[in-house]
Structure of 3'(2'),5'-bisphosphate nucleotidase CysQ:
Amino acid sequence: MAAERFVQSASASGDIEDLARLFANMAIAAGALAMETLANARIESRLKGDTSPVTEADERIEAYLLRELEAALPGVPFLAEESAARGKTLGAGDAFLLIDPIDGTREFLARSSDFTINVALAEKNAPRVGAVYAPAQGRVWFAGAQGYEAQAAPGGSLPPMQDWRPLRARPRPPEGLVALISKSHLDEATKAFLSRQRIARSAPVGSSIKFCLLANGEADVYPRFGPTMEWDTAAGDAVLRAAGGVTLDPDGAPLRYGKKADDYRNGPFIAWADAAALEAAATLP
């Protein structure tokens, strides 16, 4: 109940925008830890129980973010990837934080720039606030009711507000869609979906950057049929929704959060830049 009252109070007072800036600054600061690990000649990793990789950077960044979030938002429950892997489950609550310390760990291990640090707040089954930071690109996307993109060096902070660029997803272009596909998880269902759309170009992109490219008008659709977790999508989904886009489940409804019965696992979804694309939900396999 404390978390629910906190979110209601923040919404009423306009502090949702302050939370977006807070999350962005935390992610930017944590970016220095990622870049420290990338500077090593060898990045040590191990496989978790679900066979996904984890590195020292994942664990250090998560520990840092959890300390900062507990100090800033005491008592708000959280769902964090590495804590969940160790069996820490989310307590009851209508509102909760979601932390993905490195989204795109495989990209990180490959020293690609397509990895992100994600911090989000979900409330009443929807992502309300999110920040996505790509340390190797120096780009941060963040949103409460409004979404913005800015440049920020790892370990630094947000630039002055005049240097933020408002986010606005674009309408479906008549010449065809720019589709974003996963670098590591392209499957037959995705290929089948794309074959049914008017696609002008497809681009492989890692991590939650895909949501952000939809939000800033660089692309149109991101289909994902393989499993993801809520911490993978919440921050980017918050950014996309604030920019006017949508993320739809197979029933054509917005992707829901807080799916405890499913262990916080997402089913198939399609993220669209054009919120008028609701009819396209019928093309889900």
Remarks:
- Residues 14 and 145 are 9 Å apart (CA to CA).
- The two ends are 39 Å apart (CA to CA).
- The chain has a mean pLDDT of 91.
- The domain at 1-166 is CATH 3.30.540.10 (Fructose-1,6-Bisphosphatase; Chain A, domain 1).
